[in-house]
From TrEMBL, chain A:
<protein>
    <submittedName>
        <fullName>TonB-dependent receptor</fullName>
    </submittedName>
</protein>
<feature type="signal peptide">
    <location>
        <begin position="1"/>
        <end position="20"/>
    </location>
</feature>
<dbReference type="InterPro" id="IPR036942">
    <property type="entry name" value="Beta-barrel_TonB_sf"/>
</dbReference>
<keyword id="KW-0732">Signal</keyword>
<keyword id="KW-0472">Membrane</keyword>
<dbReference type="InterPro" id="IPR012910">
    <property type="entry name" value="Plug_dom"/>
</dbReference>
<keyword id="KW-0998">Cell outer membrane</keyword>
<dbReference type="InterPro" id="IPR039426">
    <property type="entry name" value="TonB-dep_rcpt-like"/>
</dbReference>
<feature type="domain" description="TonB-dependent receptor plug">
    <location>
        <begin position="139"/>
        <end position="217"/>
    </location>
</feature>
UniProtKB/TrEMBL annotation, chain B:
<keyword id="KW-0732">Signal</keyword>
<protein>
    <recommendedName>
        <fullName>Tetratricopeptide repeat protein</fullName>
    </recommendedName>
</protein>
<dbReference type="InterPro" id="IPR011990">
    <property type="entry name" value="TPR-like_helical_dom_sf"/>
</dbReference>
<feature type="signal peptide">
    <location>
        <begin position="1"/>
        <end position="20"/>
    </location>
</feature>
Length: 719, 214
């Protein structure tokens, strides 16, 4: 009996469920009351639902009854849940309104000052692969960025110079953590390279001004590089070059990967074959070891470790004007170590947390003629950030940073030494506010305090972007930037305060599949630059007394579409800059800020040859220098600089690359300035020597072989 | 005695609902799998995708509706004029959800590779280098997880074909894989009946790769 009853109720109830149908209908609109087609509308927990049609209308039957939750979802819109009462045969809902969700993919991004290199994001100017394949760069990240707008090539230095600023004004970061001494130590007029291998990074963000409150201690520019995530497979990479060799081994599984690599570099055999302008006692040489590890943590966290240690050196004669013979012998030894770890995790409700710590140690031993100087520099950086996304339209990034920085100089023979230690703390906050998909505002504040300078400061930053056409964006950025003077000045006068810059930038960016056009104009003022008496070798009476400005515009055009298998970009930058700085009492054009800068990079893939052929050409109208035979400072300019570089990459197999590159193919006799005798000769003239290239050309040939022990790959070979 | 039979009956009902697939789910899936084959426009595609998403929402323990929604999002990129990156990102989200429901599932693993292959196709010159190894690894894993899965082999064949073209090599490897995939498709067809809701797509694509070898 009982069982019958149960079965009876069971079937009876299920029958009622089937028959008590309610027809639900309604309209879905967007915020502008336009109909939204394709919205998924359904009763939560059931299969009952429908999609809205072209008029935003939907109708469906449901067997559910009573109080239920109706869900509306659509890609790119915020989901909505409303409670409905299903009782009658019909339920007509008043127009439902869905709010658009804004994210990087569909909303405008601020492009003033910013240039990204990434595979993923949309406002990219350069892709990671481009860095390796730019002929004039020779595999150096910085070399590739020197073909971008706002930069100047200073051929005898090699570092990055941005918009009339000197190289120290560019802050370099890896995964948000500052990298001190990121360039290799080098002798005067021997161009340096960045220490870090471009293959470590999945993307870079390069700003030529007006950048985020996240970055400080950089007057001109921020270059932020982001390391790769977990590697896809285990493999070995062998490289043999005309100047050295290296091997890198990667072990990977789904969750984590670790790479260990070692390189040796020695230009001795190369210099024996190719004639050099400089007289070398010992060609540049060095070794490095690097470890990179990545681990995906449970619940979506990511932990990364990067460590590097290296040693190197060189010994070269530097010719002096008015003196016969080889000149002065400069011997240089460098030891560098860098380690960092960082952790990032995204949480529910729009929170993302980041924590990172880095440490670097640099030691230079310099012998200049009979003088011997040791310099050591340590930097620790701790950083915490928390990002909170409110409703997808407002987001905030807050952070705290601590830098512990020490520097020491030691004159070995006279046993004189001097040093300083500084602790800097920073807090920053930055808010993004999307007023619509086409209009975004960003405001930020950064405060800092230095224990050595005994002073705090505040930097406001603001920017906005407005989408003016389907593919065009106009952005504006402004901000104040502070930076403490370079170590070798601070050690002489620990009371030196921040130098200061203010930026104003207007940018137009047009991006259409395969085409990029970018134009930017800027004004930058400098204040409290360091000036001193005497010459840069022995400065005295250092103080924050200099000031100046830089203004100009730059244009960039890239086309990856019009010509088959061809990708090219053209850059022109105009910089008008003057400043009183170092020994210059009047405002002069600095030697690192040529007025007209032009570059073209062309890459063409030839399928029949399995080869990529590349060419790059850079030009500027010459460097300012002071000729003591004429009145005034910075009163002369060198001849124009030019460099045509060619490269050829041959891929006979997917795992083998043969690469050859020649810089300055035409052998242009570039002069970067002149050095003069300290005193005039008997005719009253100062004798001079040109500062020339270390060699007319640089040729590199390399073979890169990837050995994959991937079991799947092997398995497939047997199929 | 009566008590015992009641308990038994209840127990049977329980066992029934726990071990046999929910017929409402089966029916809903069957209907959409059939509808999927007649899609001609983006609107139809969206409607079927939405229906799979509704099923996924109601049956969070099932991977198949998520899988089909991801499949439709991915194929929409190749068939219709849509925001490709947005569609593929959403497809990836769905695959990742499916992965959590069905750990080490060959079909889901192959689908993940397929979505990434779509990402590469948008900008092969710059994305290929970083994503190709991941795609190859996923297809390799999918093949290992189920040696009878023709889609894993077919997708691997497509990838090999693309790589061979890029590097100017012969199509032999791709052809071999495509032929093996076609054998598996034939085996799969023998299993398929009217009620079959598991994936069966991809034979045409395998034929295309195999055709290139003639």
């Amino acid at each position: 009996m009982k069982i019958r009853l149960i079965l009876f109720f069971y079937f009876f109830l299920s029958q009622t469920l089937v028959f008590a149908q309610t027809i639900v209908s309604g309209t879905v609109l967007d915020e502008k009351s336009k109909p939204l087609p394709g919205v998924n509308i359904f009763i939560k927990g059931s299969f009952d639902g429908a999609s809205s049609d072209a008029e935003g209308e939907f109708t469906f039957e449901t067997g559910e009854s009573g109080e239920q939750i109706l869900v509306c979802t659509m890609m790119g819109f915020e989901s909505q849940e409303i409670s409905v009462q299903l009782s009658g045969a019909q339920l007509r809902l008043q127009s439902l309104i869905l709010r658009e969700e804004f994210n990087e993919l569909n909303a405008v991004t601020i492009s003033a000052g910013a240039m990204e290199a990434s595979d993923e994001k949309k406002s990219v100017i350069l892709r990671p692969l481009d860095i390796v394949t730019t002929p004039s760069a020779n595999g150096d990240i910085i070399g590739a960025f020197q073909t971008l707008p706002g930069t100047s090539t200073v051929g005898n230095d090699g570092r990055l110079f941005v918009r009339g600023g000197d190289a120290s004004e560019v802050g370099i970061y890896i995964d948000g953590l500052k990298v001190a001494n990121s360039y290799g130590t080098t002798a005067a007029n021997v161009p340096t390279r960045n220490r870090f291998n471009p293959n470590l990074f999945k993307g870079t963000f390069f700003s030529t001004g007006g950048y985020s409150a996240e970055y400080g201690q950089a007057l001109s520019s921020a270059l932020a590089m982001n390391t790769k995530d977990v590697a896809a497979r285990s493999q070995g990479d062998l490289s043999v070059l005309s100047v050295g060799a290296g091997y890198s081994h990667t072990l990977a599984n789904d969750k984590q990967s670790i790479s260990l690599s070692g390189n040796i570099l020695d230009l001795t055999p190369y210099q024996a074959l190719v004639k050099q302008n400089f007289e070398w006692e010992r060609a540049p040489h060095g070794w490095d070891l690097e470890l990179a590890a990545q681990s995906k943590l449970s619940k979506g966290g990511m932990l990364k470790v990067l460590a590097r240690t290296e040693a190197g050196g060189m010994e070269v004669w530097q010719a002096l004007p008015g003196i016969d013979g080889k000149g002065v012998l400069v011997n240089l030894k460098n030891r560098y170590s860098y380690a960092q770890t960082n952790w990032r995790k995204a949480y529910d409700k729009g929170w993302t947390l980041f924590a990172g710590a880095s440490f670097s140690h640099n030691k230079d031993q310099i012998r200049y003629d009979s003088a011997e100087i040791d310099r050591s520099n340590d930097l620790s950086h701790l950083k915490l950030t928390a990002v909170k996304d409110f409703s997808g339209r407002v987001s905030a990034k807050n952070g705290a940073e601590l830098f512990v920085h020490s520097y020491a100089e030691n004159l070995v023979r006279s046993q004189l030494s001097r040093s300083f230690e500084d602790q800097e703390t920073y807090l920053f906050t930055e808010w993004d506010w999307y007023l619509s998909r086409k209009f975004v505002l960003r405001g930020g504040l950064r405060t800092g305090y230095s224990s050595l300078a005994e002073k705090g400061w505040l930097d406001p930053r603001a920017s906005l972007a407005y989408q003016v056409s389907e593919n065009g964006t106009l952005s504006l950025a402004a901000g104040r930037f502070h930076q403490l003077p370079v170590d070798n000045f601070r050690v002489l006068n620990p009371n030196l305060q921040n130098s200061q810059a203010k930026h104003l930038i207007l940018n137009y960016l047009l991006q259409k599949d395969g085409l990029t056009f970018r134009a930017e104009t800027f004004y930058k003022s400098y204040d409290k630059l360091v000036v001193f008496q005497g010459n840069p070798q022995s400065p005295s009476l250092l103080q924050n007394g200099g000031e100046g400005y830089a203004q100009g515009f730059d244009v960039f055009f890239r086309d990856r579409k019009s010509l088959k298998n061809t990708d090219y970009w053209i850059t022109y930058s105009f910089v008008d800059s003057k400043r009183s700085y170092n020994q210059y009492q009047a405002q002069v054009r600095p030697d690192f800020a040529p007025k007209h800068n032009f570059s073209v990079v062309v890459k063409h893939f030839v399928s029949s040859l399995k080869s990529q052929i590349g060419a790059s050409f850079s030009f500027n109208d010459g460097y300012a220098y002071t000729n003591p035979n004429l009145p005034g400072e910075m009163n002369s300019k060198t001849d124009a600089y030019q460099n045509l570089s060619l490269s050829w990459s041959y891929l006979p197999k997917p795992n083998l690359i043969v690469h050859a590159a020649v810089t300055n193919v035409m052998g242009a006799d570039n002069i970067f300035g002149y050095t003069y005798t300290a005193r005039p000769d008997e005719t009253g003239q100062y004798g001079s020597l040109p500062i020339e290239q270390s060699a007319p050309r640089f040729i590199v040939v390399g073979v890169f072989l990837t050995l994959s022990k991937d079991k799947n790959a092997n398995m497939l070979n047997n199929l | 005695m009566k008590k015992l039979s009641t308990t038994l009956a209840l127990a049977i009902t329980f066992v029934f609902s726990a071990f046999c697939v929910d017929p409402a789910y089966e029916n809903a899936m069957k209907k959409q799998v059939a509808a999927m084959k007649t899609i001609r426009t983006l609107e139809e595609c969206q409607a079927v995708t939405n229906a799979f998403l509704r099923i996924a929402e109601a049956k969070p323990e099932e991977w198949l509706p998520l899988y089909y929604a991801a499949y439709l999002q991915t194929t929409a990129v190749f068939r219709f004029d849509v925001n490709k990156d947005q569609y593929l990102d959403q497809a990836m989200e769905l695959v990742e959800k499916a992965e959590k429901v069905a750990v080490d599932n060959s079909e889901v693993t192959a689908m993940k590779g397929y979505v990434l292959m779509g990402k590469i196709s948008i900008d092969p010159a710059s994305r290929g280098q970083s994503l190709s190894p991941q795609v190859m690894q996923l297809y390799g894993k999918a093949i290992n997880l189920d040696r009878e899965n023709p889609r894993a082999l077919m997708l691997m064949a497509q990838m090999e074909q693309g790589m061979a073209q890029f590097f100017g090599q012969g199509p032999e490897k791709a052809c071999g894989l495509a032929r093996n995939a076609l054998d598996l498709y034939a085996k799969e067809e023998a299993k398929v009946s009217g009620d079959y809701i598991l994936p069966t797509w991809g034979k045409g694509q395998a034929e295309q790769v195999a055709d290139a070898c003639k």
